[in-house]
Amino acid sequence: MIRSNVSVATQFAGLQLQSCIYNASGPWCTTKKELMDIGQSAAGAIITKSCTLLAREGNPTPRYFENNLGSINSMGLPNKGYQYYQSIAEEITAKFQKPYIVSVSGLSLENNMRILESLQTQKNIAAIELNLSCPNVVGKAQTAYDFPQVVKVLRAIAPLNKIPIGIKLPPYFDFIHFQEMAAIINQYPIAFVTCVNSIGNGLLIDIEKEAVVIQPKGGFGGIGGDYIKPTALANVCKFRELLRADISVIGCGGIKTGQDVFEHLLCGADAVQIGTQFMSEKATCFKRIVNELQHLMQKKGYHSIADFKGKLIQA
Ligand code: SIN
Predict the structure, then answer these.
(1) If one looks up domain 10-63+77-198+226-307 in CATH, what number appears?
(2) What would the mean pLDDT of 195-203 be, rounded to a whole number?
(3) Catalytic annotation present for 134
């Protein structure tokens, strides 16, 4: 039940969201039907599956597994190709009063440039999230762990300024890496960063079978869910501290409840994305989590997320 005196609205990169909670690029956002389902839900925005130049089948199955602590995936970017997500932008935005964001994960800088140049001409696309952190393409390293390559990418995309561009980062684990990456990002016109993608190249094991649980890459894949919440919070908190004030931080990682959202916002997130929980609970999760967040805010006497966003006490 939406409480009218408690607003969970937010804004970032010039976008207005009635709810600060929306889907992570990953589960249930590949087809128009899935994106429409997100549109109909209580999600504050709609983001697509990361798209490539051409459609991809992705990695062999089984490529996703979850237990009570989280998930492992090695999807390998199955998607319908960027032109599909561009072509449905008008229909989706005509139907839903919420921002439509396209996630892009081209397999090379040249591919990304072609995709971004084309998407920039589409007025119904509210923002682009450039995914520099997919751990699951065989033979391709995660761009955002290669700092000189990140500089190359950000320099190349800098002139593309018709639609706000954000970047999706992998988790970092050392203060020196937070500092180096933030110093790079701060030099470019990046509108937001999404922290974090799954923790790359983890392993989950089936003890009965004494085997890995997914097929690609010998069972190695990106870890999500409860396993990663402390890492996600640390990345949100550190990037909020180190980035220019005009660069928004979108939190992602381990969000199942309104309390988890509250923690991400407290660390400085302007909005949050739901991945693993959306995968299992589908689009009904957004309304439940909004309600839980509103309930918590009401209990604490907060009326808007500005009342506590970024106010984590670190005495
Ligand atoms: C995938 O499709 O492999 C997941 C995307 C990602 O982790 O960036």
Answers:
(1) 3.20.20.70
(2) 98
(3) yes
